[in-house]
């Protein structure tokens, strides 16, 4: 049986659905042809879902004192505790907490801080980059000189400085309550520069295009031109930077928490768990350190590899 040709006019022929057009796009084709991207995306999705649904997946609530039993402390992975008979897949820590459960709950803090910090950095950087390039003059000079000065300092030191100042002006009784938000502010303010520089460079190119000139001729305001015309055309590199910055923000949070200036002990993140685990590394309880460290490594590496693929997929020159 042969298919009969469709002689109807093009406007009357059946058009593929939006879902089918999306599935047949170059973006999806590139993703399905990249094993590294597919594996990285799978790892990220599994870890993120594990963190989001931690209360449903975790066999124990590691931060509920009523559920803890000190007799379960230092139980090796997959081994029944000699006193209680309880078995923990990834072992237990010095307080008898299930390491697997603490990792799931710790990832919630790390991911929340990472996403929120990147969103803050992206908002500040994109806004200042657009304004600097479109307005120009002394406004651009001030913004970019501030960015240059901040680039002379390591981002982790800038984050530590901002965190210390914010904690210093916060009353002691509220420090643990606002520590997570202060951490987000510190990482976000230390990471906006790269967004601003990339958006400024892209905006300098886009603002001289014909569609921007046409928008000016019809009387569109500067804000409308920046938000509705220029911004959508400079988002591709921003998405790539945001993906890579997410991994860096998670690592920065873990570093700050490892140094004791990040997440409070009442809301430990992966960095806090690693700091606790390294105290027992050389006494034989290796699992308290290894499993949180491996989780952080897998999460950061997968996001980085996904960002590298996204950079290639969104750049026609690299794809060619």
Automatic annotation (TrEMBL):
One Pfam family hit: BPD_transp_1
UniProt cross-references to PROSITE patterns, sorted A to Z: ABC_TM1
Gene field: gsiD_2
ABC transmembrane type-1 domain ranges (all copies): 107-307
TM segment ranges: 36-58, 109-135, 147-166, 178-199, 234-259, 286-307
UniProt name for this protein: Glutathione transport system permease protein GsiD
Domain of life (superkingdom): Bacteria
Membrane topology: Multi-pass membrane protein
CDD domains (UniProt xref): TM_PBP2 (cd06261)
SUPFAM superfamilies for the chain: MetI-like
GO cellular component entries: plasma membrane
Classification via InterPro entries: BP-dependent_transpt_permease, MetI-like, MetI-like_sf, OppC_N
Source species: Palleronia abyssalis
